[in-house]
Amino acid sequence: MQASKAETELPENKPTRSEREFQNLLRRLELALDASQIGVWEHSINRDVILWDAQMHRLYSTGQTDRVVPTWVWSNALHPEDRERAEQDFERAVAARGAYDSQFRIILPSGEIRHLRSRAHFYVDEEGTPSFIGAEWDVTSDVLLNAELGKQKMVAETRAQALEESNARIEHVADHDYLTGMPNRRLLDKRLAELPTDKSVSTLAVLHLDLDQFKQINDSHGHTAGDAVLRAASLRIAAAIPADGMAARVGGDEFVIVLINFAGLDELKAIVEDVQRRLRKKIRFGQEMLQSGASIGVSWSSDRRARNLLAESDLALYQAKKLGRNRIEFFSRQLQEDLRGRRRLAEELAQALEQGQVVPYYQVQLDARTREITGLEALARWNHPEKGVLAPGVFLRIADEYGLSAEIDAMVLQRALEDRAAWQAMGCSVPRIAVNISPARLADPALLDKLRRLAIPPGAIVFELVETIFLDDCDEKFLANIDLIKQMGIDIEIDDFGSGHASLIGLVRLKPKRLKIDRQLVTDVVESAEQRRVVGSIVEIAKALGVEVIAEGVETEAHAVTLSWLGCDSLQGFALGYPSSAADTGHLLAPTGHNGKSRSVAG
């Protein structure tokens, strides 16, 4: 059945289905553009106007709704610094009849600056007019975020670079002497460890040298003069050795030189003699000409063996100094025998430790004003079954060389705790006991557990650290271990303070309870105004940091009086008491009279 004409005709003015779909699509597009806050514009190239939708007006805060907008509205809104570039971007797109892509800043009527992104495509309309239709949206948040990210990246990169530079400086400081800039013992040990595997090495020599008259220069002209001598010596040594050699400062006035690939003994002797000749030349210090020199021990090998050369050269140096200084001594068979003797002594010392022959002797520390006993220092002695009681000078250097220092420290601490308990059982009032602790013992990872097992009463024991320890090893892990030791009730003292190694920064970081002024500064304190000023300055610094001061090396009553006047808290030395056995110390600590107090020691 055929439909009628009326049935097939559409109502007048009623949109077709395709028109409805197109309108719906437009509505959806408008909704999407509104939600995304993207403005749409159209620019006919031949006309000086642009078509803006409502969102474009909102982006530029014009307060208008006109569809047709003069092009100057856009140009005037551009930031002055961006105007030329933005207009050139559009002109290039027009010339190329291609895509337009630009980003610029605009200044709103309120003065606020916003960042906009604009993109458009070229087309030719129905009338053949070239045009662009495009979109713009606000990217201020993205720009600011990217700027902040860029800033943070730059900051991070700057910090990373600073950290890298700082690590390099730390590594350099760790491997070099602070005064002369030369390699230190740590870097020397690294080099000596590398040499046996270095196939380019044919001959190898180690020179061990000490500066002669250095102590006298320090004593007579002060530490500043001593520092000048050390710096001059380092420069002269560096100038004397070949480029492939190495020189290191390994102690106060002690240097080690490593030479490789020299032609033979004659060339080696020539280099050694040149080093000594340079070091004999006088050094200007102000108006003074200082005379030093050097004693040198040499050991060499025709291959690259380096294991024993350092010890052998040290033994040769000892021989040079023993024979009168300002000498050169080469390691010999006789010295080899001496070295074997030192090894035998080390073996005996190890056995002595097993048999409990290493015992503490105690030297009193007195209050500088009342002369009452305020502390004891436990000093290691070797109770040898045949040679009697041996002073530490006989065996401590051997102990260091053969790795026995930590065992000696542990034994002295153990015996000191036993002696303390025995004295308390006798009714004695026992003061604090200072016990030396070596770098080797501090480096023991099990040290803290060992100390905890000893159950040391708080305040009973003090650990004495030599000054060089916190110069060389004052890193965060070291300081953390020291803090844990303090938390056990064990005070920290710095021994030999003023011998030239410490820094005030290291002292502040370590925060010791006390420091002991080096005996070299005490020796001439009565006669030397300069020494008194030095000691007085140390006392003032210590007081400012809340650190007590002990002066050691007190050998006369005049020393005691002067040091008390300078502000020292405690005194220690032969004038006040010699190191004594545990039994004799117990008698000294025994209570006297009715008050039960231990006796004071008169000056």
How is this fold's topology laid out?
Layout lengths: L4 H4 L8 H20 L2 E6 L4 E4 L1 H7 L7 E3 H7 L2 H17 L3 E8 L5 E12 L5 E9 L1 H36 L9 H10 L9 E8 L2 H8 L1 H18 L5 E4 L4 E7 L4 H16 L2 E3 L2 E3 L3 E8 L7 H14 L5 E3 L2 H22 L3 E10 L5 E12 L3 E3 L1 H10 L3 H21 L6 E5 L2 H4 L4 H8 L6 E6 H6 L3 H12 L3 E7 L6 H7 L3 E4 L1 H4 L6 H16 L3 E4 L5 H9 L4 E2 L10 H8 L1 E2 L4 E2 L5
Helix pairs in contact: 8-9, 9-10, 11-12
Structural overview:
With 603 residues, the chain is of the alpha/beta class. The chain is built from 23 helices and 24 strands. The radius of gyration is 42 Å and the shape is elongated. The relative contact order is 0.06. The strands form 5 sheets. An 8-stranded mixed barrel has the order 14-15-17-18-19-20-21-22, surrounded by 5 helices. A 6-stranded antiparallel β-sheet has the order 3-2-1-6-5-4, with helices on both faces. A 5-stranded mixed β-sheet has the order 8-9-7-12-13, with helices on both faces.
Which range does the strand content fall in? 15-25%
Gyration radius, in Å: 42 Å
Number of strands: 24
Structural class label: alpha/beta
Largest sheet: 8 strands, mixed, barrel
Q: What's the mean pLDDT score?
A: 86
Count of discrete alpha- or pi-helical segments spanning 4 or more residues? 23
Described by its quaternary structure, the protein is: single chain
Low-confidence stretches: 1-11, 593-598
Q: Considering DSSP H and I runs of 4 or more, what fraction of the residues is helical?
A: 40-55%
Strand order within the widest sheet? 14-15-17-18-19-20-21-22
Taking the alpha carbons of the first and last residues, their distance comes to: 143 Å
Tell me, what's the shape?
A: elongated
